[in-house]
Design a protein that fits this description.
heterodimer, A: 332 residues, alpha+beta, B: 766 residues, 5-stranded mixed beta sheet, 19 helices, 28% helix
Chain lengths: 332, 766
């Protein structure tokens, strides 16, 4: 098996201590949550940080609780299994429970965390390869080079955004709390994504995601997440599609459709969202929303199946997840 | 109460407890005093000349003990197949002057730990001169293609045309002729245990190598040749092995490299490949193309069959021509015809090396043949199973290429699979999106002949002990398929003792007798007959002693229930242990031992010129029925069930046989739908279990195995193979079922969802 490069390990027990260590070793330290993505990447020598900061011993970061009357708080160290199995999440935010449940496989879900999934690095099969493999190609943009092997004339990195939970969280209007030594910021989750494969989010090295905040769903709402993968387990999404709709009677007052894995960030299909709010929802409208989603998808040749197929499937999965969200909204 | 006491019983594996508890020691678990760790530097170029290698910096790294290159080797090439003479051995353990694929071995390091060894690899400076490379078989055969080996003109490793009967005449006589072309992908074995070995060469010059291998004997031969050593100075031991599937059946380069490092340092060295190295630098199943042309009469009688295949061999021989020779066998198994002609070749490219993989040649052949058979049946308006039954091989027959078929349950396999899959009520009768399909075939129980193979044997030693325990020594390698248990069952049955009375030692070249190893599904029949032969002989010795004591005719004796007694009078006899003591006493302490063997060469032959051969002592036959559901919008396929129906002659251990069928379904399922090496100019883009889509537990269908016992005259207790053949019919059964479900035919595996969606679009556009 590939070897893990040498590093020094920190296991702070308080957030304060963690933030101090992050500040002290800024630029040369990586955060370990579940480790399901970081450690394989380190074995491939994609990162060789001098220090690893393990957050698992920091108390209070893995709770799922009602924050106030308006929101549910999910600690960033909550595992994907805890989220998948949480009765609150299942009842109020089925899209998130489904997305967490569809990540990889049981063992990985038991380790992997929601914070880790939010901060998940983008992927590309010219990048996520072992050190010796990468010697057979020129250094790519994501590794600090100047070429893109997936998009030959590409001027930016097109690595794809592979997190399952994020499209669901964005559809559910999630916010995050990000802390550093100086203080904290609270923002809409979708705002942290850059849509550049090289540096997919704006979380800086001294910062830690501590909480995810989900506004309680309104009356008449429904949400859903669907994922295209070739196997029943293990695979990252080839397409991820989340939706949330809110109905007042027969009128859709709010709609979100968010795609994953078909671009370098979560893609909000705003044109389709506007369409759904403008007209009575019929099967034709859902089809049209799917067509819009298909056009919004921007997959490139950096993982399995051709971009053409994945784009088409973005439309199919957008429709399917939308139908399910509508069913859930209406069946309440 | 059946005829047998041990044969046909559902025994758990004898190695199950130690494997379940984790006590079983695999090669990678081994630790020897002063042991060092080896790592291999590989070529980053698909084709290049090595101008210079500078190891100075690497040697200076703390912890590094040795760095070796091609110059430190005897410079003798080795290939598992170097026959015929115009296809000589062409692989050096470490490249001498040229590299021919990304992953080719260039240098190796031994260090005090794996990290230091890995770090040292980065410090070896190799100057390469890049050469033009070729990755596509059609391109490689063009006159101006880069020449990969000096000895192989046009990059043809081996090519032949086999013709039996007059196909041209028979095509003329045919009422209907159909032609199809199929494309085959590369797939990987995915044995959970990576290739690994530990070498220890002491100052007397004696080399001991523990290796995760399917054949200790072949590794010993290969090491002796490429290291220029005497075979007797090399001891190869196989610890527990975590799967092989053909990927460990040859000597692999890590083995001589590990030995050379140990030789240089006088201390043990261990090399364990990473999963990525296993994908890139060991072996893959041959990809290629397969064209078929078949002529039939209106009533469905096959008149003429013509096949043409081109296989991508990758950069080196590996098993070379065997893919061509064996796929010719599979062209002739299963169905009768008035004539058959087969044109096949193996082409060198700058891709990683293709070699043996479960079913060797038959997954490719049967995917093409069985898809083609379905298409012909449809054109004729026949049910595909009726068309197959009409043409299927029959018992006590000889094929056009001279395979001697004694037992053959193909027709019964088809009928039983139909019944259990509810074929008649389902085929063509289910709602759109749902379908059933069938795939059939046959497979050789072992392979070998005296002409092309120097030693196609299995042998065994048995010692009976005075407590009634029996030691069985065999060279056959249990690589997880359970052959140790099977062989013990055979000996226990013959001697009338219990399974737990037989203690087996297998696959250690210094202790166990010659055996070619585990490949070509040969162990149950070939090594099984060898083990039974030794058991028969030792039984005879014991009977002689007991007959004398009981004053009974020797032919009246029977061995059963741990006793030897006069048939029909169990009281008139002695215990098995007493018999051993008596025998030992009467011989004045002479050990009660025997040897046994099975010479495949007495039945099997191979005519290099014509290609006529009898490949094996007997042949299994099989028919698998699959039921699938296709999501037409996404192209995703759910396989609901597979009925593998297998004529295995006799089930020595039905539970183990069913396990083989279940494993076959898993492998065939991947071959059909998801598994595929994805290429980019000689690079493998998915060399990991994350990106290489081997089916998971959640993808598995319901499996309803059927074991058909035809009691073959050449098999031990009537047995035939049940390990490799069954992996081949799964893919065509599934793809034929997909056709039944949605009416589109995809002639390229794997049938990915994308291909289904495209084919449906194309059909819709018409």
């Amino acid at each position: 098996m590939l070897r893990l490069p040498r590093f020094q390990y920190f296991g702070p027990t308080s957030l304060d201590e963690a933030l101090s260590l992050l500040q002290a070793h800024d630029g040369n330290i990586k955060i370990l949550a579940g480790g399901t993505d970081l450690l394989p990447s380190m074995k491939q020598k994609l990162f060789t940080p001098q220090y690893i900061l393990d957050l698992k011993k920091v108390a209070g970061l893995n709770e799922i609780k009602n924050g106030s009357d308006e929101e549910v708080k999910i600690g960033s160290l909550s595992t994907l299994t805890e989220i998948e199995e949480s009765s609150v999440v299942k009842e109020k935010f089925p899209a998130l429970a489904e997305a967490a449940g569809l990540v990889a496989a049981t063992q990985i879900k038991n380790m992997g965390t929601i914070g880790g999934n939010i901060a998940l690095d983008t992927r590309c099969w010219f990048f996520n390869q072992p050190h010796f493999w990468r010697k057979s190609i020129e250094t790519c943009l994501k590794r600090g080079g100047e070429v893109c092997h997936a998009v030959k004339s590409g001027k930016r990195c097109y690595a794809f955004f592979a997190a399952d939970t994020v499209p669901a969280l964005v559809a559910l209007n999630a916010q995050v709390i990000i802390k550093n030594k100086e203080g904290q910021r609270r923002c809409l989750l979708k705002e942290i994504y850059t849509h550049d494969g090289k540096t997919p989010n704006t979380i800086k090295t001294g910062e830690v995601i501590t909480e995810v905040l989900l506004p309680l769903p309104k009356e008449g709402s429904g949400s859903s997440y669907r994922k295209l993968r070739l196997r029943g387990a293990i695979d990252f999404p080839l397409v991820g599609a989340a939706a949330q709709v809110v109905f007042e009677g027969d009128i859709c007052t709010e709609a979100k459709i968010v795609l994953g894995a078909v671009g370098s960030g979560p893609i909000e299909v705003t044109e389709a969202e506007e369409l759904l709010k403008a007209v009575p929802i019929t099967e034709e409208v859902i089809e049209e929303a799917g067509d819009i989603a298909q056009k919004a998808a921007q997959p490139v040749a950096n993982t399995k199946m051709t971009p053409g197929y994945r784009r088409k499937m973005a439309g199919v999965f957008a429709k399917r997840t939308l139908r399910e969200a509508i069913n859930r909204a209406k069946s309440k | 109460m059946g005829r047998y006491s041990v044969i046909g019983k559902r025994f758990p594996r004898i190695d199950a407890p130690v494997k379940a508890t984790g006590e079983a020691e695999y090669t990678a678990d081994m630790v020897l005093p002063k042991m060092l760790f080896g790592k291999i530097l590989r070529s980053p170029y698909p084709h290049a000349r090595i101008l210079n290698i500078d190891t100075t910096k690497a040697k200076r790294l703390p912890g590094v003990r040795a760095v070796i290159t091609g110059k430190d080797t005897p410079g003798i090439p080795y290939s598992s197949c170097d026959y015929p003479p115009e296809c000589p051995a062409n692989k050096f353990p470490l490249a001498l002057d040229k590299v021919r694929f990304i992953g080719d071995e260039v240098a190796a390091v031994a260090a005090i730990d794996e990290d230091s060894a890995e770090e040292a690899l980065d410090l070896i400076k190799v100057d390469y001169e890049e050469l033009p490379a070729v990755f596509d078989i059609e391109e490689a055969m063009k006159p101006d293609a880069p020449q990969i080996h000096d000895h192989a003109e046009g990059n043809i490793n081996f090519g032949c045309v086999r013709s039996f009967g007059d196909v041209d005449k028979d095509f003329e006589k045919s009422d209907y002729i159909r032609e199809d072309k199929f494309t085959l992908s590369s797939v990987a074995h995915c044995a959970l245990e990576p290739h690994s070995c530990v070498a220890s060469l002491d100052s007397s010059g004696k080399l001991t190598l523990w290796s995760a291998t399917q054949s200790v004997h072949r590794v010993q031969l290969g090491l002796a040749k490429t290291l220029n050593m005497r075979e007797g100075d090399i001891r190869v031991i196989k610890p527990y092995v975590g799967g092989g599937f053909g990927g460990k059946h040859e000597m692999m380069d890590l083995e001589p490299i590990c030995a050379l490092l140990s030789q240089k340092l006088g201390t043990p060295v261990k090399i364990v490949l990473t999963r990525e190295e296993v994908f890139i630098a060991t072996r893959l199943r041959h990809r290629g193309i397969f064209e078929l042309k078949t002529g039939v009469k209106k009533d469905g009688t096959i008149m003429a069959r013509y096949g043409r295949s081109v296989f991508d061999g990758g950069a080196y021989n590996s098993v070379g021509m065997v893919i061509n020779i064996i796929s010719n066998v599979h062209m002739n198994l299963a169905y009768r015809s008035s004539s058959v002609k087969y044109d096949t070749c193996r082409v060198f490219t700058n891709n990683p090396v293709s070699g043996a993989m479960r079913g060797f040649g038959s997954p490719q052949t049967y995917y093409a043949v069985e898809s083609h058979m379905d298409m012909i049946a449809e054109d004729l308006g026949m049910d595909p199973t009726e068309f197959r039954i009409k043409n299927s091989l029959q018992p006590n027959s000889v094929t056009l290429n001279k395979l001697i078929i004694n037992s053959c349950g193909l027709t019964e396999c088809i009928e039983k699979a139909k019944e259990k899959s509810n074929w008649s009520n389902k085929r063509g009768k289910m709602p759109r999106g749902r379908g059933v399909g069938m795939g059939c075939g046959g497979f050789e129980s072992g392979t070998g002949d005296r002409e092309s193979d120097s030693d196609p044997y299995s042998a065994s030693f048995i010692r009976a002990n005075d407590d009634g325990a029996v030691n069985l020594l065999v060279g056959a390698a249990d690589i997880g398929q359970g052959s140790d248990t099977t062989l013990c069952q055979i000996v226990a049955e013959e001697l009338g003792v219990r399974l737990e009375d037989v203690k087996i030692v297998s696959a250690d070249t210094e202790i166990t007798p010659i055996d070619q190893g585990t490949f070509s599904s040969r162990i149950t029949v070939i090594a099984g007959n060898a083990a039974r032969d030794a058991a028969t002989k030792i039984k005879r010795k014991l009977f002689e002693t007991v007959a004398e004591k009981l004053e009974a005719p020797i032919d009246d004796l029977e061995a059963k229930d741990r006793r030897i007694y006069v048939k029909g009078s169990p009281d008139k006899g002695v215990s098995f242990a007493e018999a051993v003591i008596l025998c030992q006493k009467s011989g004045g302490g002479k050990p009660v031992v025997s040897d046994g063997y099975y010479d495949i060469g007495k039945l099997c032959y191979f005519d290099v010129e014509s290609g006529a051969s009898n490949e094996a002592p007997n042949y299994s036959f099989f028919a698998h029925a699959a039921e699938v559901e296709v999501d037409e919008e996404t192209g995703l396929v759910k396989v609901h069930s597979i009925v593998p129906s297998h004529d295995l002659g006799r089930a020595i251990n039905p539970m183990a046989a069913e396990g083989q069928l279940e494993g076959s379904v898993q492998m065939g399922l991947g071959y059909a739908l998801s598994e595929e090496i994805i290429w980019d100019k000689g690079k493998i883009l998915n060399p990991s279990f994350l990106d290489y889509e081997v089916p998971t537990a959640l993808d598995m269908p319901e499996i309803k195995p059927i074991l058909i016992e035809t009691d073959d005259p050449e098999g031990p207790f009537g047995a035939k193979e049940c390990g490799e053949g069954a992996a081949s019919p799964v893919a065509p059964a599934i793809t034929n079922a997909i056709y039944d479900a949605i009416g589109v035919r995809i002639k390229e595996i794997p049938v990915t969802p994308e291909k289904i969606v495209k084919a449906l679009e194309k059909k819709g556009a018409k």
